[in-house]
């Protein structure tokens, strides 16, 4: 098995790991999101997800599991049998299953199948889908909501402009009313002055 990746491994190392296994699968943004999620669930910050970390993760995702179910989940992903999920194993778990290819040939002995196929054949696919959905749901939605945010900003600006226009109309109306009042007083004073002479 190749050298283990860590949460601090640079993107270039991640996409070239194990014969460039992740090269066409994960983008830089996706790797950053996966790292953020891994850090969030790695409670003791040791670079691995142990049974307590996985328990916390499952509970955080709204899928609480029993201790035996947690051990089973870890066992399905733990390729080096150390009882924990490394960052490399976490990434491998998130790879979508291959659609076609000789590695999916049921006649191929399990030991000759690539690790990915053995993992997916072991029942990991449903858990991988669950983790993929969890990562997707916890992604940064800023770009997705950009247009909605811009629309709200435009709406607020429009409302603010309407308020300013109304205030300006009121100000002009008050000025006009004051001017008319002053002109009326001036006309009355002029008439009074004419009659007083």
Automatic annotation (TrEMBL):
Q: Where is this region: Disordered?
A: 156-197
Would the keyword Repeat be found if you checked this record's keyword annotation?
Answer: yes
Keywords, A to Z, come to:
Calcium, Metal-binding, Repeat
Question: Which SUPFAM superfamilies does the record associate with it?
Answer: EF-hand
Compositional bias (Basic and acidic residues) spans? 157-186
The UniProt record lists the EF-hand domain at 29-64, 65-100
InterPro entries hit by this protein:
EF-hand-dom_pair, EF_Hand_1_Ca_BS, EF_hand_dom, EFHD1/2
A molecular function annotated in GO for this UniProt entry is: calcium ion binding
| CDD domains recorded | EFh
Question: Where does the source fall among the domains of life?
Answer: Eukaryota
* Signal peptide span: none
One matching Pfam family is EF-hand_7
Checking PROSITE patterns in the record gives: EF_HAND_1 (PS00018), EF_HAND_2 (PS50222)
What's the protein called, per UniProt?
EF-hand domain-containing protein
């Amino acid at each position: 098995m190749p050298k283990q990746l860590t949460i601090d491994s640079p993107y270039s190392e991640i996409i070239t790991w194990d014969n460039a296994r992740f090269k066409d699968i994960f983008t830089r943004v996706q790797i950053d999101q996966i790292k953020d999620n891994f850090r969030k669930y790695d409670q003791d910050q040791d670079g691995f997800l142990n049974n307590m970390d996985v328990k916390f993760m499952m509970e955080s995702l709204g899928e609480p599991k029993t201790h035996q179910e947690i051990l089973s989940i870890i066992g399905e992903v733990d390729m080096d049998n150390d009882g924990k999920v490394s960052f490399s194993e976490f990434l491998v778990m998130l790879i979508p299953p291959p659609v076609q290819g000789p590695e999916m040939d049921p006649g191929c002995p399990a030991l000759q199948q690539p690790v990915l196929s053995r993992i997916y054949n072991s029942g990991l696919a449903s858990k991988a889908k669950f983790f993929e959905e969890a990562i997707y749901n916890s992604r940064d939605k800023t770009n997705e909501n950009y247009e909605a945010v811009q629309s709200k900003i435009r709406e607020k600006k429009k409302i603010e402009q309407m308020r300013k226009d109304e205030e300006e109309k009121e100000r002009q109306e008050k000025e006009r009313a004051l001017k008319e009042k002053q002109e009326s007083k001036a006309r009355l004073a002029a008439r009074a002055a004419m009659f007083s002479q």
